[in-house]
């Protein structure tokens, strides 16, 4: 099945959270996701954004790659290596992101490859929440 | 002159707050019109302003601006505080500072940035979600909401964002439901209930969860621990789906701001 890729690059500043949320929401609403799931995607995109911003230097950019197919949205966000905080702080952040993402996504993972760490998540149409 | 004279003093005082000294400063300012005492009080409570301002971040306004706005509230509170009243200054100042921040968002974030058409549409989307959920017995798609209202999907999405802009303004007004307009998050710190026990193994969350109202805790619990959908929670608590959505988003913001401190 065809996969459309959409890339969005925004400055790593919190005021762009809305842009990210709305882009993600616009993509999944086209896929016919229901109101609950669209709201989940908005949350997931925002959490991913906030998480990525925390790992990047101030003047950096956050690049979101959305992959849209008939029945699912995948989001790929490269993370920076910046970690100004203590390990404890990093643990807290990770625990929080985990908590949210596992609730609003069908799957997610922190993965490393040759060009660094990525946060990847998936939301399916009529996925985990639908019985 | 007072500011300069005071500068080194500020440094040490900032670290060690003490009640008697605070009262003395207020007395000096009130009775002797001692401006240096006022400046010192402002510096002393700047952390309170920073804390409160940080709760409004991620809403598109630079934190520095919010701290400035909050500081205006702090100065008002210092000028109006009645030292004869047996109430802690922080208790008195907090609603004033938060009020100033809310007014700022109301003026800037809502009244100016959000056109009237969108305010109305946001309200209609809210009603449409409820009506369609009833009719279809499931959560409607964005397209269905748009069709029902005769607007595009994009307009529905914009309205969803708008309802949050509105939510920021009313951030504290229905907190707990009994405190009226008073800011009472600090009262919730340490409040314990069943949720806390469940959250215990996710220890990083427990302190932050204590800062939520009982209703927010319930929604959080149903959504993230029981795994109910927003629609199911809305039915269970007899509130609208949009309210659940707002409660969740607000709850997550409170959690994030308390867990992810910078």
Question: Helices, strands, pairings?
Answer:
The complex is a heterodimer of chains A (131) and B (262).
Chain A: E1 4-11, H1 17-30, H2 35-54, E2 61-68, E3 72-78, H3 87-104, E4 107-113, E5 116-124
Antiparallel strand pairs in A: 1-2, 2-3, 3-5, 4-5
Helix pairs in contact in A: 1-2, 2-3
Chain B: H1 2-15, H2 19-32, H3 35-44, H4 46-54, H5 63-80, H6 89-112, H7 116-136, H8 142-149, H9 153-169, H10 185-188, H11 194-199, H12 203-209, H13 214-225, H14 230-237, H15 241-259
Helix pairs in contact in B: 1-3, 2-3, 4-5, 4-6, 5-6, 6-9, 7-8, 7-9, 8-9, 12-15, 13-15, 14-15
Describe the structure.
The complex is a heterodimer of chains A (131) and B (262). Chain A is of the alpha+beta class. Chain A has a single domain, classed as Heat Shock Protein 90 (2-Layer Sandwich). Chain A contains 3 helices and 5 strands. Chain A starts with a strand and ends in a 7-residue tail after the last strand. Chain B folds into 3 domains: 2-112, Up-down Bundle (Four Helix Bundle (Hemerythrin (Met), subunit A)), CATH 1.20.120.1810; 115-169, Winged helix-like DNA-binding domain superfamily/Winged helix DNA-binding domain (Arc Repressor Mutant, subunit A), CATH 1.10.10; 173-262, Up-down Bundle (Butyryl-CoA Dehydrogenase, subunit A, domain 3), CATH 1.20.140. Helices cover 73% and strands 0% of the residues of chain B. Chain B has helices at residues 2-15, 19-32, 35-44, 46-54, 63-80, 89-112, 116-136, 142-149, 153-169, 185-188, 194-199, 203-209, 214-225, 230-237, 241-259. The longest helix of chain B has 24 residues, at 89-112. Chain B is elongated and about 70 Å long. The interface between A and B is large, with 35 and 41 residues.
